[in-house]
Amino acid sequence: MSQWKNFSKGFFKENAVFVLFLGLCPTLGVTTSAINGMGMGLATTFVLVMSNLVVSLVKSQIPDKVRIPSFIVIIASFVTMVELLMQAYVPALFEQLGLFIPLIVVNCIVLGRAEAFASKNNVFSSIIDGFGMGLGFAMALTILGGVREILGSGTIFGLNLHLFPLDADGNPTTMIVFVLAPGAFIALGYLIVLINKINKKSAK
Amino acid sequence: MAKRESSFLNMVLTLLMITFIASAALGYLYELTKGPIAASKLAKLNNAITQVVPEFDTIPSSEIYKMGVDGDTLVFYPAMKDSILVGTAVSTFTNKGFSGYINLMVGFLPDGTIHNISVLEHKETPGLGDKMTKKKSDWSVQFNGKNPAEFKIKVTKDRGDVDAITASTISSRAFCDAVDRAYKAYMEGGKK
Questions:
Q1: Is residue B58 situated within a structural domain?
Q2: DSSP assignments along A91-152, one per residue
Q3: How far apart are CA A182 and CA B125, in angstroms?
Q4: What is the ipTM, given to two decimal places?
Q5: A179·B126 Cβ contact <8 A
Q6: What tens digit of pLDDT does each residue of A116-148 get?
Q7: pLDDT given for residue B23 in this prediction
C-alpha cells in the first residue's frame, strides 16, 4: 500500500466517524460548534500519532498476553499530557472540552489503530496512519460542528453569518435543536448519507 | 526481532517498565505545567473579581474569607480602595441549573446593592440557558445597581422582579437562586 493511500484512507474510505462509526461519544458530545470539534479532533490526532509511534516502536518487546494493558498505559499517558498542556496553555478550550479529554483514553479509534495497525506495521507507516486517521476524525468533527453551529447558532467559528431573521428582542431565531443532543444525531445522519454517496460514486 | 514470549517474568517486567516510564514522564510534565495552570486559574479569578466590583487598589484574592452554606462554601473577596471597603465579590453557586451546577461571581457594594455579576462556570444549554453569560446576551445586566432588599430576586413567574430568559425559566431560576444565596450570606455575616 502506498503511503499516500495509507494517509488518505482516514478521510473518506475508512473515515472513523462517517464510515467506521467509531468514537461516536465525543463526536456527538463536543460538536456544538466548529471550534470545539476541531479542538477535540486535533487533541485526538496528537494522541493517535504519539501512541501509534510508541506502540510500533516497542511492539516486539511486548509479550502478546499483556499487549492491551500496555497499549492502554501508553495511550493514557499521552492523553494526560494533552490534558495538562491544554489546561496550562489553552484554558478556554479546555473548559469547553474538559470532560471529553480524559475520555480520549477509551476512544475506540486510538486503541483500534494501536491494535490493528501500529502493532503490525513499521514506525513510519504507523505515524502516517495516525495522522491520516486523526486528521480524518478532526475533519469529521469540524464539519459536524460547523453544520450544527451554522444551523443552531447562526455563526461559524464564532463569526456571525446573519442568516436568520431577528425576533422582537433582537436575537436571531435559529434552529436551537441543532445545538442540543437530538440535533447531533440528525446532522450526523445526513452527513453519513452524503459521505456514503460520495464513496459509492468514487468506487464506481 | 522476534516477539517476546508471554512468560510470567517477561509480562511482569514489561508492564513494570512501561508504567515506570509513563509515570516518570507524567510527573515531569506535571511539575512543568503546574505553574502555568495555577497562573491561568488565578488570572481568571482576578479577572472575574475586577469585573464585578468597583475600582480597587488591593489584591482581593489575598484577603479571602469563607462561609459554609447549604453543604458548600461561599468565598468572599473584599476589595478596598484607600483602606475603605468599596465592594465584596462573592463566589456563589447553585445546583438547580438545567444541567446542574452553576458557579457565579456576584459583586456587592457595602450596602448590599448588586454591582455586577459574572458567570464562572456553567453547563447550561448553548443558545438558551447560556444567555446568562455576558458574552451571549445582556440578560444579567438587569441585576446591576439593584438592591435585593427592594428588588425581589425571583423570576416574574414566581412573583419576583427578574425577567427570565426566554425559554430558559429553569436556568433563570437557578441564576436567581445563586444570587439570592450570595446576598443572604453577605447580609447575615459575610460583611466585614
A1: yes
A2: HHHHHHHGGGSGGGGG-HHHHHHIIIIITTS-HHHHHHHHHHHHHHHHHHHHHHHHHHHHHH
A3: 13
A4: 0.70
A5: yes
A6: 888 888 888 899 888 899 999 999 999 998 888
A7: 92
Q: What is the pLDDT of residues B17-64, one digit of tens each?
A: 889 999 999 999 999 988 888 888 888 888 888 888 877 777 666 677
Spell out the domain ranges in chain A: 15-203
Helix/strand/coil for A166? strand
Please tell me the distance in Å from A196's CA to the nearest CA on chain B. 30
Q: Are A191 and A147 in contact (CB under 8 A)?
A: yes
The pLDDT assigned to B60 comes to 62
In a domain, B175, yes or no: yes
Query: Does residue B133 belong to any structural domain of this protein?
Result: yes
- Is residue B125 a part of any domain in this protein? yes
Q: Is A87 on the interface with B (CB under 8 A)?
A: yes
Domain count, chain B: 1
- What pLDDT is recorded for position B25? 92
Q: List, for chain A, all residue ranges whose pLDDT scores fall below the cut of 50.
A: none
pTM: 0.75
For A113, A144, B140, the CA distances from A133, given in Å and listed in that order, are 8, 16, 44
**Rounded to whole angstroms, how far apart are CA atoms A149 and B15?**
44
Whole-number Å distance between alpha carbons of B81 and B60: 11
CB contact under 8 A, B6 and A84: no
Domain span at B112: 52-190
Residue numbers of B between 13 and 42 with CB closer than 8 Å to A: 14-15, 18-19, 22, 25-26, 29-30, 33, 36-37, 40-41
